[in-house]
């Protein structure tokens, strides 16, 4: 019996590190077919968000279109407030309705992703979410960042409750089998 209890304890520790902790808020979600640009500082997170949002029915524009329309002396955009303001101004001129910003935080073994949707016309954050691992993660970082992006988006869209949910994850939504439910508006 004692061996069983020890094994259960280790399984709980193992699963606690595998399930992300999420949080999210939404006032409004973008309308179906809303012209959207995804901008972030990690290729795998931006790729996951682009696919995820397209499966939700949004019309995601290629980031290079935004880059081609920039009116700035500094073509090397980072992720500062000034650069995000430039991105929003350019998106507004292009007729984009929403910009989705994705930022990476934490460290390589305990990454965090935050996502937020900004209405281009008003500059209002209409939704935001985050996902992180509570413990160090052994999964390769790119895989972890893509999964965290999906989990944060799933929380904002209401497919996953916020917090740490043991044995409850939206990982099926993040798989490549395409089994993502559509959202009706």
pLDDT averaged over residues = 78
Number of strands: 6
Report the principal-axis shape.
globular
What CATH architecture label applies?
Answer: 3-Layer(aba) Sandwich
State the fourth-level CATH superfamily: ABC-type transport auxiliary lipoprotein component
Mind describing the biggest β-sheet? 6 strands, mixed
Characterization of this structure:
- With 185 residues, the protein is α/β, with parallel strands linked by helices.
- It has one domain: ABC-type transport auxiliary lipoprotein component (Rossmann fold, 3-Layer(aba) Sandwich).
- The protein has a six-stranded mixed beta sheet, sandwiched between helices.
- Helix 2 packs parallel to helix 5.
- The chain is globular.
- The C terminus is likely disordered.
Features:
single chain; 185 residues; 23% strand; Rossmann fold; alpha/beta; disordered C terminus; six-stranded mixed sheet; globular
Task: Write a short abstract of this structure.
The chain is α/β, with parallel strands linked by helices and 185 residues long. It has helices at 2-18, 43-55, 63-68, 81-94, 141-156, and strands at residues 21-26, 35-40, 59-61, 98-107, 110-119, 125-132.
């Amino acid at each position: 019996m004692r061996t069983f209890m020890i094994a259960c304890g280790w399984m709980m520790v193992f699963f606690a590190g595998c399930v992300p902790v999420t949080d999210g808020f939404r006032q409004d979600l973008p309308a179906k077919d809303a012209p959207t640009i995804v901008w972030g500082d990690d290729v795998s997170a931006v790729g996951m968000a682009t696919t995820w949002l397209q499966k939700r029915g949004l019309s995601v524009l290629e980031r290079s279109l935004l880059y081609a329309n920039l009116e700035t002396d500094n073509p090397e955009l980072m992720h500062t407030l000034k650069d995000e303001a430039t991105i929003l101004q350019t998106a507004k001129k292009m007729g984009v309705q929403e910009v989705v910003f994705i930022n990476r935080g934490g460290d390589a073994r305990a990454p965090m992703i935050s996502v937020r949707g900004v209405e281009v016309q008003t500059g209002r954050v209409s939704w935001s979410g985050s996902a992180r691992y509570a413990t160090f993660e052994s999964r390769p970082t790119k895989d972890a960042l893509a999964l965290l992006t999906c989990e944060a988006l799933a929380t904002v869209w209401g497919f996953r409750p916020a917090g740490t949910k043991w044995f409850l994850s939206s990982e099926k939504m993040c798989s490549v089998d395409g089994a993502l439910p559509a959202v009706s508006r």
